[in-house]
Amino acid sequence: MPTAAWPIGLPRHLAYPDVALDTVLISAAASYPDRIALRDNENQLTYGELLTQARHVAGGLRARGIHSGDVIALHMPNSVWFAVAYYGALLAGATVAPINPAQPASALRQQLTDVRAVAVITSPLAADRVLDANVEQVRLIIGVPGDGELPGAVTKLADVLDSEPLDDLRIDPTMAAHLQLTGGTTGRSKAVRVLHRNVVANILQCAAWRASALGQMDANGELHLAQIIEAVGPHTLTPGHSVHLGIAPLFHGLGLVGLNIEIALGTTIIFPRGFHPDQVIVDIQRHRVTHLIGSPPMYYALLRSPKLAAHDTSSVRMIISGAAPIDTSTLAALAAAFPNAGVTEGYGCSEATMGLAFGPVWCDEPSPLGSVGLPLFDTEIELRDSDGNVVPDGAVGELCARGPQISAGYLNEPELTANQFHDGWLLTGDMGRRDERGFIYLIGRAKDMVIYKGYNVYPQPLEDLLCSHPSVTQAAVVGRPDVSAGEIPVGFIVLSSGTTNSSSLMEEVMAFVAERVAPYQKVRELYVVDALPLTPTGKVLKSELRDQLVIR
Q: What's the N-to-C CA distance of the chain in angstroms?
């Protein structure tokens, strides 16, 4: 169903050429050959150099026995070399499995086995864990340059780059590009089969949304993005002129699909060495960064930085929060701290490649605070009840999505795939509602819903209210089993700097929430923690909070 609200000047539907990610890189190199594509502390590459390096890596992988469809795990932090290895693997016809490099060897062993990786590209600081994992089917380990020495059993990337380039293999768009491991907040992670055509579709959707640029194929088979001038607003990005800080981890869909979006748009991507909020603020001024994309913990940290008020952030035109819900108080604080930026929230998941909905950059009406925006081009979102019926606007239901970015299901998990993917629709497990203009609001995960005396209590609105209290910076709500009520809502909060915990403060905060909700929605218990437990991608581990309640 078309939404009433829509970005100014943009069509409702896009064309999706039948190409793979090799075309995206080749086309960007043709459009911006001498523009800096990637930069980290030690290295920088132009778009032309990135393509050349990737082709040499592809040739070296083929010469070392990698075949089309083989799985190569990428096991390293963000850097120029991650991107070189990533595109090299794709140009060789391989499927990449990005893996968190900070995991212990036991978890790495399980994931490498699950995705059936035959090769791993790692870094000096993480290589020993690959060797300790000792996975039988892994027959090639390559190490990129970085801090520290590579073990002798690891092939140096420099040797792979000495190989003859591979430049005549075109990739089938129906092949898997990524085996994207899900966040794993409730146990063992699963590998989502994201096809090349899924990623290309999401690139084109997001490029049009953020930069008002539509994909067009030329006579040479290259994909170029042409900006619609009448759709350009004050916060629209400009292809070939933007600068982005690559902070979101590239082992996560927000980072990896985001890398491809930036490459398609000819953006210069700066990879900081780790995440240090003060340095990020300095880098924003130094590099004249145009847009930031990250998870809520990143923004919480930036807002706490004493450097923020002392540095020029006027170059930032767009801020997008994703990967996990963020409270409206933080969004408002970001808008105040970055006065030239349009601040929006987005929504997506690994099963949908990355993005399903985003706040519009330029619209006939602003994205309402608390909304994750509108469904992207050619993306249908239905809200369904437990019987599968579509609920009316304003009512809460499970978000179900259909569009060209919906993935091909889970690797080697036919039953789970059948349960979550129905007739082209993805059943996300997220609960939400839609307003009369078409804007989507998240309420929480279905599994996180608290049932209090038969009433459904959704955590997200309570978390938002808790964070709107001046003494609270972060909050999470879970259910505690209760004999008389079934479950009661329990809050965990992080206090703002300089605030002292006391029983009177807890009573004040709970009363603050109670005044703004129905009686059955009240937070019944409140606990102060130094930090909320998070996954590496910024999602709150509510299972750990429930475990804490057991021992309290």
A: 48
Q: What DSSP assignment string belongs to 345-393? A: EEE--GGGSS-SEE--SSBSSPPPTT--BEEPTT-EEEEE-TTSPBPPT
| Distance from C-alpha of 220 to C-alpha of 388, rounded to nearest angstrom | 46
Pairwise CA distance, residues 422 & 351, whole Å = 13
Domain end marker among 444, 476, 491: 444
**Tokens 């991507």 found at:** 269
Query: CATH no. for residue 477?
Result: 3.30.300.30
Query: What is the per-residue pLDDT across 133-142, written as a single tens digit (0 to 9) for each?
Result: 999 999 999 9
387 lies in the same domain as 478: no
pLDDT tens column, 5-21: 899 999 999 999 999 99
Q: Which domain holds residue 424?
A: 197-444
Cα-based angle 520, 524, 526 (whole degrees, multiple of 5): 145
Cα gap 480→463, rounded to integer Å: 16
Residues in the chain: 552
Considering the entire predicted model, what is its pTM? 0.88
CA-wise closest residue to 409 among 258, 190, 185: 190
Residues of the chain with pLDDT under 50: 185-186
